[in-house]
Amino acid sequence: MQQLYDLFLKTGLRPFAFMTETQPLEQKVTRSDLSTLLILLFRGDLTMSELAAEMGAPLSSMTSIAKRLERKGFIARATSAQDQRVKRVTLTQEGKQIAKESEQMMLSLLGRLEAVFTPEELEQFTMLVLKAARAFQSDGPSKLPETKKASVKITIEE
Amino acid sequence: MQQLYDLFLKTGLRPFAFMTETQPLEQKVTRSDLSTLLILLFRGDLTMSELAAEMGAPLSSMTSIAKRLERKGFIARATSAQDQRVKRVTLTQEGKQIAKESEQMMLSLLGRLEAVFTPEELEQFTMLVLKAARAFQSDGPSKLPETKKASVKITIEE
DNA sequence: TGAAAGAACTACGAATTCGTATTAAAGGAG
DNA sequence: CTCCTTTAATACGAATTCGTAGTTCTTTCA
């Protein structure tokens, strides 16, 4: 419990700094850039606002990130024909390439979890983390999808 | 599982932005400032290097943070008599005040967890999170203390 | 219809973090 | 004792994030 506290204190600055997998990719792009590319890969083309919402970031930050990614040639931004205010963001070929690499890296991270967790633990971990996240989510409408699950009995090893 | 993925993508930018308790305090100090004050409250006076290590931040960042906190009057830095290179960092009265407030806020956060988790779930949550953190910790010597615990059977509700 | 309200972005500046270079003290090796 | 290496910390500049203030369309409603 105290250890959870400690972990929390360290997590404010440089979150997830302990992960080594991210380093090679972070030579080319920022972590937020990387998140953006992954989101585009998963969700397809999005507007700036949608992207910002998916990232949980303010729109002004999203502008900075998009500008960077555009300069590096990883995304393209085109103003929508229906509504000329909105810009639709698309992955370029090169961007798709990086996004795929990022996905591999994420899978590798997930692999680490699977290496130390039993499948049941992994499921339980997921459920507990989501439950915790929901608990912290002020009292506003939960943005995270509700996971209704029947009770599960599992054994933690080690 | 996919939801864990999503949560991860959002956590890079603005980690723990979903917590409302931190907002009143973050008017006065940064989140990293807050971590620093808490660490000083728990561990007592520390040197700059020790502080950086506790924070998991580079020393140069620690310098910036300490300069800020000193300017605001929350800490004092005195060069050690034994070794004139090291600076010992101390909480001022006002700093102690803020640190105590921060501690209250942390307890309130913990209270949220206790509200939605059963004691067993909380224990399991702690164990699994620590286990996961250790798994991500490259292959270097684990900085987090090993939690050897016997197997536990628990039931997750909801 | 046309003026006001609202929406989707961008611009800009301030604050923060951090890598690299630098300063200053301490600890040897000869 | 003198030179060299190591250690503790700061200085500085670049990059990032984000709040606030525009800018440019779109919608509304009187």
TrEMBL record, chains A, B:
Which Gene Ontology molecular-function terms are recorded?
DNA binding; DNA-binding transcription factor activity
Q: Which domain of life is it from?
A: Bacteria
Gene3D superfamilies per UniProt:
Winged helix-like DNA-binding domain superfamily/Winged helix DNA-binding domain (1.10.10.10)
User: Matching SUPFAM superfamilies, A to Z?
Assistant: Winged helix' DNA-binding domain (SSF46785)
| Pfam (any one) | MarR
Which N-terminal stretch is annotated as signal sequence?
Answer: none
Under the heading SMART domains, the entry gives:
HTH_MARR (SM00347)
* Biased composition, class Basic and acidic residues, residue ranges: 145-158
Q: Where is this region: Disordered?
A: 139-158
Sorted alphabetically, which InterPro entries does this protein's record hold? Answer: HTH_MarR-typ, Tscrpt_reg_MarR-type_CS, WH-like_DNA-bd_sf, WH_DNA-bd_sf
HTH marR-type domain segment(s):
1-134
List the keywords (alphabetical): DNA-binding, Transcription, Transcription regulation
Query: This chain belongs to which protein, by name?
Result: DNA-binding MarR family transcriptional regulator
**Organism encoding this protein:** Paenibacillus phyllosphaerae
